[in-house]
Amino acid sequence: TVLNNLGVLYEKLGMPDDAKKSYIESVSIRRKLLAIDSISFAPLVAQSLSNLGGFYETLNDYPNSLSCHLEAISLVRSLIRIDESAFRPQLAVTLAGLGNLYVKVDSIPEALECHKESLEINRKLSEEDRAAFSHRLGESLLNYADLKLVIVDQK
Question: What is the pLDDT of residue 155?
């Protein structure tokens, strides 16, 4: 957790080399722990991969960003099969991150699918606990609506 948070801090301080090193080291250590206890460490690996993917995105390194985001989603989807209610919020956030990447690389149909699924998850979460998830529902609605407008403008 410390290395992942340190990566976030270095990124905010404009220290990309240090951020990248921290993110990569965080993913590496968490992957080793994943081999010991996959259920406990898969969410942490997914979080680190999402952060590393977002970092690569800021560098316009879209292939590495996509690889990280897709691996993170794969991990979270595997956790959903074990305990859906515990990992739905992480899946919604991870899908939104991938959707945002797809927008940047102009893959609008893929972006729309990611944001649509994130919206559906956040809608259900908000119905279950409005106070905890209404802000995420609002973000998802805006992302989805913005993409629908892009599609209309392209026609």
Answer: 65
